[in-house]
């Protein structure tokens, strides 16, 4: 997509995947940012969407928006740091819609920004539980259901799965681990009809990115020299997620798809 493309043009791409219609997808971290954009895109494509996040009110608002446009949606309060909550979310998707066809495991956190030698075990553990254990639990219970019918899973690995950034070692390590989980599971389940990939975005206009850069103005300034001259939009990542969930990528699995406006080639 060229730099001048509008957000509406990006959103319209979601409708171009008719094979997603009528299928059911779970989205974690769905209350805002990339997760919210992906949930809305799936709804526009005619999918049944299960939105999970700790902020139930935000998920309910998105579910209402999806229903307004003719889609089906279920909002759930999901704390992905608790394994039973993850299992219950997968069960709820199947119970409500009778099936699960895939998922976008998006929930994550940045964690404390510190020099490496000042990090504590707690700094590592808190990020690891949200960014790694939660993705592991999501994949574990999603795969168990998808074994019966096949499907596709996409994890949000971040560009930090491929490169490193100073002062956020726990985040860097966790996203490298997400890509490792993605590749391993993809290898094990391709022949059972389950494709598993990851998206590796950088940087995107989200609250997390603004926090990492030190505010919205700093994010704009810090991305001005990227090839597009700006940060990415959540809808642009969502478009990539939908492609990976669709049959259009039936021969792609175990990959970390970079969605970074070309910044890593500079």
Give the topology:
Blueprint (H helix, E strand, L loop, with lengths): L6 H6 L11 E5 L4 H12 L3 E6 L2 H13 L3 E6 L5 H15 L4 E4 L15 H26 L4 E6 L12 H21 L4 E8 L5 H7 L2 H8 L10 H12 L10 E4 L7
Parallel strand pairs: 1-2, 1-4, 2-3, 4-5, 5-6, 6-7
Tell me what the structure shows.
By secondary structure, the protein is α/β, with parallel strands linked by helices. The protein has nine helices and seven strands; from the N terminus they run αβαβαβαβαβαβαααβ. Strands 3-2-1-4-5-6-7 form a seven-stranded parallel sheet, with helices on both faces. Strand 4 (102-105), helix 5 (121-146) and strand 5 (151-156) form a beta-alpha-beta unit. It is globular. Mean pLDDT is 90; it is low at 1-11.
Assembly state: single chain
In which order are the strands of the major sheet placed?
3-2-1-4-5-6-7
What value does the Rg take, in angstroms? 17 Å
H and E string: HEHEHEHEHEHEHHHE
The rounded distance between the terminal residues' Cα atoms is 18 Å
Helix content: 40-55%
Query: How would you sum up the major sheet?
Result: 7 strands, parallel
Percent strand equals: 5-15%
What would the principal axes of the Cα set say about the shape? globular
Main structural class: alpha/beta
According to DSSP, the number of beta strands is 7
Alpha plus pi helix count? 9
Low-confidence regions? 1-11
Mean residue pLDDT = 90
